[in-house]
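Dear Dr. H.,

I hope your travels went smoothly. While you were away I took the liberty of generating a structure for the chain from your last submission, since the lab meeting agenda had it listed for discussion. I wanted you to have the full record in hand beforehand rather than looking at slides cold. The sequence, exactly as received, is reproduced here:
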Amino acid sequence: MSLPTPESRRIDIPTAYNLRGLGGLPVRDGVFRAGQVFRSAQLSDLSDGDLPGFEALDIATVYDLRTAGERSTQPDRLPGGMRVVVLDVLADALSSAAANSSLTSLIADPAQAQDLLGGGRAKELMIQSYRDIVNLPSALRSYRAYFLDLADPQRTGAALFHCTTGKDRTGWAAASTLTFAGADRDTIYADYLETNTDLLPMTQPMVDAAAAQGIDPDLLWPVLGVDRDYLDTAFAEVERAFGSFDGYLRQGLGLTDDVLAALTARLVTTG
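The corresponding predicted structure, in token form, is as follows:
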């Protein structure tokens, strides 16, 4: 089965950054059901002109994976009547490069950027963030609630999950959803790495602003983009902490056979 092209899954809504669906991707025993699950960056910039296009996706539930601080400074602009489920993945983290709401201050302070991100420290921060995304108590609670709600037969319409830039907490939500559905690693990593292209309209202005302040853009890319090593870290942490991905779902998240069967029925088209 051929993999859908990034262009076929990318949703062209200019002020909804990094927006694409999981539908059509090949999974075990079929394909991921089209029009059911979407991923994006925060929706705080969604314009009045783009609201009709967003509404046409029939998204009824939005899972907001951001911290309280991120939500308060950049609240989503959503169509009326949309159900929002707040899932603060990193609530138990003392700090996290994945919760990158402080990047604005870094861009304004070259010395701080060098101290925090230089010498390979940016990548180290991101690697630790991916361990946190897998095993923090708040992360386990949040992804458990996400999967339970996604499986709920009473939930109507499509669902979308997002964090701030739609790459780390969102990246793991997508990777874990696709892994559960039976997608192979090539498919999962292709979707994950597509963020480096789809997020450019949001991140390039930040890089340009940093360069104007005398900051080497290479300092920022490790925290503004995604890297295969980051997702490798998450899967390795699953193996270390839970023994297998099935162990993560069942012991880590506490999902039962009935919930997993309901998820399969909702997400996979067989044939």
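Two observations you may find useful: The chain has one domain: 6-93+109-270. The two ends are 12 Å apart (CA to CA).

With kind regards,
E. W.
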